[in-house]
Specification:
The chain has 94 residues and is α+β, with helices and mostly antiparallel strands. Helix content is 35%, strand content 27%. The chain contains 3 helices and 3 strands. A 3-stranded antiparallel beta sheet has the order 2-1-3. Helix 2 crosses helix 3. The longest helix is centred in the first third of the chain and has 11 residues. The relative contact order is 0.26.
């Protein structure tokens, strides 16, 4: 999986503030995960999928990580769509 330059990630994170994002399967255009974050949270799932433990019966990986790995095996990367950004702490973010 190709990764975004860390400096670019920090610049993007600085501009976004608090945000809601979704991970999208690029082969189908279908979202498979929606989350909220700050900083470089949007990029953490890829690292988790690449560096996390393998799927075992005793410790299965979740559906999100399994899907990211499937997408990677196909030579693709999940798309990250920012749905909303610049939110303040409080009701609009929780």
């Amino acid at each position: 999986m190709e990764t975004m330059n860390e400096e670019v990630q920090r610049q993007v994170a600085d501009e976004l503030g608090l945000y809601v994002y979704m991970l999208v399967d690029p082969s189908s255009g279908v979202p498979f995960y929606v989350g909220k974050g700050r900083g470089t949270r949007f990029a953490s799932h890829g690292w988790e999928a690449m560096l996390g433990p393998d799927d075992t019966e005793e410790a299965p990986v979740g559906a999100k990580i399994a899907r990211i790995r499937e997408i990677g095996k196909a030579g693709l990367e999940p798309e990250i769509w920012i749905i909303r950004h610049g939110m303040k702490s409080g009701p609009e973010y929780t």
